[in-house]
Amino acid sequence: MRSEYFEFDGDRGRFLGPDDLFPSKGFMEFVLQYGQDGLEALDNADEQVQQLINEMILAGLLERDEQGNLQMTERMHRGMQHQALLEIFRQLKGGWRDGHPSSDPGRHGERSDGTRPYEFGDPLSELALGESMRNAIRRLAASGGTTTTAGIVPIRFDESDFELHQVENATTSAICVLIDLSGSMMRYGRHIAAKRVAMGLRSLVREKFPHDHIEFIGFASTAECLADRDLPMVMPKPITTREWDIRIRVPLDQADQTHPHFTNLHHALRLARLRLTRQGADNRQIFIITDGQPTAHLSGDDTEILNLIYPPSETSAEITLREALTCARQGIRISSFALIEEYYGMDWVGFIDQLTRLVRGVAFYCTAGDLEATILESYLTGKREKRPLW
Length: 390
Description:
The two termini are about 50 Å apart. The chain folds into three domains: about 20-70, no CATH class; about 105-170, no CATH class; about 170-390, Rossmann fold (3-Layer(aba) Sandwich), CATH 3.40.50. The longest helix has 19 residues, at about 190-210. It has helices at about 20, 25-40, 45-60, 75-90, 130-140, 190-210, 265-275, 315-330, 350-360; strands at about 60-65, 70, 100-115, 165-170, 175-180, 215-220, 225, 245-250, 285-290, 295-300, 305-310, 330-340, 360-365, 370-380, 385-390. An eight-stranded mixed sheet has the order 7-6-5-9-12-13-14-15, with helices on both faces. A three-stranded antiparallel sheet has the order 8-11-10. It is of the alpha/beta class.
């Protein structure tokens, strides 16, 4: 192999340094805050910004489509997801396998200390020959086994002699992340925190648990699936009315003709449940990122009706909780990420607490601007446990 060295001529397209492989934190915040509108506005910025754009294009972070519009590359998407992972999950430790560790002994993981008796269906590749031979000799000695004329003791194995190496268990998960896109998510930069959490989860799954399945659902007045590439650009729905008392009923297929900014967690949970039931993973989970209680739900039999209600009603909350309970009964674990500003002053937090208690799930509470101050509440054991996450 022949190597050649020469002085760097300043051509950033030939060499990519660490700062070129991922977008800067400031640019990431800009995209998360303004989405596609922000990228389009960059073309009208000053000369310094234009130079930055050209450098990011050379680095493979940005590109232009056939119409000349700026768009992010796959490298940019992965870089943003990786930075989001580092920002949120700073306490993660390396060395995890491509599966989630389990306390139960498994059949297809890495070997650990000890052995166990063979059971029908176990892989013979994990057969512990030394221990199996020892068991066979002990059994023959106890039964008074005889030697041959050549003085050789014939060893015949019985199924009870076999032992297998103990191996760690690894399990897979299918995850649906529900992202609140209601109008209130624009306040305090909550939509930025929501997208950061979602991208961090996406990066975590790809880097640590590549066998897991993860998908995203955005919900406002209705719910819809989101592609991975849409996460940085997705924005909360615009608020279209300032009326204090709203009671609207429209067919679901006419939802685009009414207000888009309500919170229909019921529709999101149902869509997530239907999609997760198609997955063959060992575990199924729903992760909710929201900043308020439901203000919309679906009803009707033959024709589905979208109900928009403000102030929030007990009916929307009850129907949403009923759907959450259905998910739990089908083996789907629900975790909530509540973006709040004042933990004890927000009435809607009571809904998250009720949801978490009902499904024996987990809830994370934090302000939009301080993800490190996250509070974890868990009802997994049937009792309420509250502690700082970090």
